[in-house]
Request: fold
Amino acid sequence: MKDEAAIPRTGRFLTFEGGEGAGKSTQITRLKARLNEAGIEALLTREPGGSPGAETIRRMLLGGRVKPLGPEMEAVMFAAARADHVDTTIRPALEAGRWVLCDRFSDSTRVYQGEAGVDTGFLDRLETLAVAGYRPDMTVLIDVPPATGLARVAARSATAGAPVPDRFETDGETVHARRRELFLELAHNQPGRFLIVDGTARADEVEEAIWSAVRTRFANDLDARG
Ligand code: TYD
Reply:
């Protein structure tokens, strides 16, 4: 395990979390554009995936091939994908001074695999191994009631050429409701890291809320660029 205090950090690491259909991809793209306008180069990435090795694992996980092995093994596979992603994509970018915006990260494992019954101590151990000290500086939780999120996913799936729902999108509404509660609990327990935004608001309003919080939280980094 690496010594967390010894890791040189130059770029900033922001993650986006939330249930299905929360609008993470829209908002992460908008934040990248805002940062670019402010002179900050940001790398946009996602989990599971974000590196060639992790994308291979992603296909196995979302295709449901790991599901028969049970939630513990799914947690192991998400962690393995994360370890590769941190090692080959996130760490090099941060060390080069770039900002990294990641669509889902370890909080998703806490919530999705935690909800499926995986023991917290086991998840702690996997997180320490996979994250290797690269913990997010800020996490944006886009909160939407499951009915709203699932309706958005259904509308998306109705479009011609849309991808078929993945292994986690097809879970029932009660499961989605418990995931929402777990995300909110994580956020309330770590208010310094999390920003909770109301994902039912108009996309422009959500964008503004996120940008205003990022500007405040990273005022020094943004001022330094002029
Ligand atoms: P993705 O297509 O990226 O969906 P979304 O747009 O919802 O982010 O699929 C990722 C799915 O994998 C999503 O349903 C959440 C789930 N997941 C976990 O269960 N554990 C994890 O650690 C991660 C990163 C994702």
The mean pLDDT is 93. Residues 11-225 form a domain with the Rossmann fold fold (CATH 3.40.50.300). Residues 79 and 125 are 10 Å apart (CA to CA).
